[in-house]
Amino acid sequence: xxxxxxxxxxxxxxxxxxxxxxxxxxxxxxxxxxxxxxxxxxxxxxxxxxxxxxxxxxxxxxxxxxxxxxxxxxxxxxxxxxxxxxxxxxxxxxxxxxxxxxxxxxxxxxxxxxxxxxxxxxxxxxxxxxxxxxxxxxxxxxxxxxxxxxxxxxxxxxxxxxxxxxxxxxxxxxxxxxxxxxxxxxxxxxxxxxxxxxxxxxxxxxxxxxxxxxxxxxxxxxxxxxxxxxxxxxxxxxxxxxxxxxxxxxxxxxxxxxxxxxxxxxxxxxxxxxxxxxxxxxxxxxxxxxxxxxxxxxxxxxxxxxxxxxxxxxxxxxxxxxxxxxxxxxxxxxxxxxxxxxxxxxxxxxxxxxxxxxxxxxxxxxxxxxxxxxxxxxxxxxxxxxxxxxxxxxxxxxxxxxxxxxxxxxxxxxxxxxxxxxxxxxxxxxxxxxxxxxxxxxxxxxxxxxxxxxxxxxxxxxxxxxxxxxxxxxx
Length: 475
Known about the structure:
The chain has about 475 residues and is α/β, with parallel strands linked by helices. It contains 15 helices and 18 strands. The chain has helices spanning about 30-40, 60-65, 80-95, 110-120, 165-175, 190-195, 215-235, 240-245, 260-270, 290-305, 325-355, 375-395, 410-420, 430-440, 460-465; strands at about 5-10, 25, 30, 50-55, 70-75, 100-105, 125-135, 140, 145-150, 155-160, 165, 200-205, 250-255, 275, 310, 355-360, 400-405, 450. The strands form four sheets. Strands 1, 4, 5, 6, 7, 10, 11 and 12 form an eight-stranded mixed sheet that branches. Helix 10 packs parallel to helix 11 (about 325-355) and helix 11 runs parallel beside helix 12 (about 375-395). Mean pLDDT is about 90; it is low at about 455-475.
């Protein structure tokens, strides 16, 4: 029995205040729709994917999706209501018997576990709903918003999607529903429950992060959840990094010491061709556009391509803005932000050819300006915005753009600014460098990746201290 994953993408984004369908908004470097389609496309249990789209958007959605997701077999216009859209899916599939999973396009964080359990449950049940327990008390109110009943929370569940069915069950439920002049249902399990009461609806446990992007705040939550999902999925062993990165070329800017030097050292140990530039080693100033162009051209001339560019250079001047000299202001802005713009412009054509990675570094101060850090905080916030913008601009070119946000890290720049601090309170530069190479080895784009001591395993830290990435490539 074949299994169809159906993405219901008929929303218009009214509650988000958007002029385009909400599923076409980009989060973490891709449209919400792409993330959702990818979940079904990557599921081994799903044979074909059908996408139901907002009327008038069929051609644009086909252009966006068709060349990237091989399981897509149909892209159809949805109806004016959820029920009408489902009926169009049923009609398009005809009289065959199959398993069908109907999923909201604006739930882009769908787990493979949920898909697998839904498909498996259809072996024994005609309908399946995905639900999670309610952490909140639910109340029933009358027309005047006065509480009339408080149900037992232990028996309540919050519905999510996908909702899964044997097609014959869903078809027969809708055939009976159209004969009812008072037909009204908010979801497809409700249709089956009312018009096929003989069919038991099995519940599969959903996930708290399987959120529906409905309101503006949901976009920010989804972006953060994608960041956390990427952190958990991209953590790689040292050997996995070698297998993925060996033979590729990486250009490290700011590679004289600190995190940049560790990135260069570990990349060599992973078998990469490494070109590391720094003001105190090769004399390259990252804010100098001409020097950046020369460095990239030389790397390509030597190794044939550049697969990754990592910019770790930065300066930290602490003090009130009103007391800062012109030299301090200029250096803070040009090194911490203008350099990133110059690097991006210079690297674009090479990274496009390689479908490569551009990686920046920010600071936790990007989320809120701090007293005596005005220039540093604002430039790091700009760097995050630059990352997110470029990830969208360059997505069609296959270029991955991300930014690492490490907690307080044991580097010479920090020591110079704050003096000696207990080492156990700081993140080792080796762990930050490892996280950077994980991002270079991944397909993620548009993410701000937090690196925290508690999120990096003790085995990994031990391995790095044992010099597991020896500098032995000779690059």
